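stage 2 :: seqdesign
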C-alpha cells in the first residue's frame, strides 16, 4: 500500500485504513485472538476489559486516531521515521520497568519467568525499531546518530539478574501487570497502524524485511497480552476478581488520559485544525 499525496485520494484511503485498524469490533476481535492463543475463554478478564472499554471509550481505538496518524505520516516531513525510531526508546524503558518488577517479585515462579521473558523481549524490540528505521528509511538519520541512539538504550539482557531485598505485595504485582496489559493492547494496535504505512513508504530494498519484522512484533504483543490475561484469570479465580475489575476501570481511565494528552499535543502541532475531537476527552 502506497500513501497517496492527492487530497481526495488520501482522505478516502485514510477512512478505509482507519476503519480497518480501529474497527468498531476491535475489542471483540482482540479477545477472539487471545482466546485462540491461550485455548481458554478468559471470562473474567474479558468481562473486566469490556466494562472498562465501554466506560472509557479509549482515544487509541477511535477511527479518527488512526486517521490522524495517517495524516501525520503522509503530510509531516520526517514524522514517520522519527516515530518508528522513538518507539525503540519506549520499548527499552518498558524493559527496564519489567526488570525492576521482576527484581521485587518472589515466590511466584510462573510470574517471575513470564515477566523476565517479557523484559528481554522489550529490549530486543528496542533494537528491532532501530533496524526498522534503517531498513525503511535508509539515510534519513546518519550512521553516527543511529549508533549513538542504539548505544543509549539499556539492555536488561546484559544485566546480572539479582533480586531486590524488598518484596512487592501481590496486589501491587496485579496492578503493575494490569497496566502492562493495557499498554500492550495499545502497542499491538500501534503495530497495526504502523505496518501498512511504514511498508508502503519503505525503500523497496527493505520492504520484505520490514514486513517480516512487523509480523514478529505483532506476534510478540499477542503473546504478552495473552500471558498477562491468563495471570489475571488465575488471580480472579483465586479471589482477586473485584480488584482486577476495579483496576482495569481505573487504570484504563488514567492510561486514556495520558494518551489524550500526548495526542492533543501532536494534534496541536500537526493537525492543521482538522482533528478537533481528538483534543477532547
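stage 2 :: out
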Amino acid at each position: 500500500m502506497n500513501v497517496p499525496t492527492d487530497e481526495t485520494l488520501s482522505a478516502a484511503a485514510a477512512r478505509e485504513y482507519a476503519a480497518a485498524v480501529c474497527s468498531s469490533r476491535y475489542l471483540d476481535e482482540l479477545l477472539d485472538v487471545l482466546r485462540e492463543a491461550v485455548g481458554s475463554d478468559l471470562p473474567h478478564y474479558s468481562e473486566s476489559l469490556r466494562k472498562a472499554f465501554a466506560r472509557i471509550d479509549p482515544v487509541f481505538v477511535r477511527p479518527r486516531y488512526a486517521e490522524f496518524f495517517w495524516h501525520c505520516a503522509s503530510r509531516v516531513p520526517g514524522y514517520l521515521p522519527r516515530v518508528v525510531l522513538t518507539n525503540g526508546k519506549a520499548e527499552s524503558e518498558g524493559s527496564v520497568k519489567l526488570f525492576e518488577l521482576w527484581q521485587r517479585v518472589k515466590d511466584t515462579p510462573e510470574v517471575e519467568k513470564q515477566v523476565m521473558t517479557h523484559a528481554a523481549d522489550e529490549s530486543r524490540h528496542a533494537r528491532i525499531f532501530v533496524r526498522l528505521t534503517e531498513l525503511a528509511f535508509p539515510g534519513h538519520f546518519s550512521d553516527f546518530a543511529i549508533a549513538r541512539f542504539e548505544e543509549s538504550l539499556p539492555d536488561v539482557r546484559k544485566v546480572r539478574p539479582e533480586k531486590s531485598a524488598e518484596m512487592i505485595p501481590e496486589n501491587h504485582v496485579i496492578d503493575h501487570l494490569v497496566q502492562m496489559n493495557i499498554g500492550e493492547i495499545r502497542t499491538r494496535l500501534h503495530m497495526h497502524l504502523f505496518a501498512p504505512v511504514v511498508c508502503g513508504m519503505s525503500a523497496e530494498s527493505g520492504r520484505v524485511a520490514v514486513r517480516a519484522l512487523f509480523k514478529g512484533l505483532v506476534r510478540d504483543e499477542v503473546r504478552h497480552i495473552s500471558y498477562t490475561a491468563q495471570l489475571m484469570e488465575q488471580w480472579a479465580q483465586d479471589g482477586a476478581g473485584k480488584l482486577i475489575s476495579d483496576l482495569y476501570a481505573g487504570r484504563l481511565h488514567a492510561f486514556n488520559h495520558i494518551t489524550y494528552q500526548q495526542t492533543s499535543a501532536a494534534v496541536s502541532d500537526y493537525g492543521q485544525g482538522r482533528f478537533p475531537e481528538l483534543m477532547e476527552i
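stage 3 :: structure notes
- The longest helix spans residues 207-270.
- The chain has nine helices and no strands.
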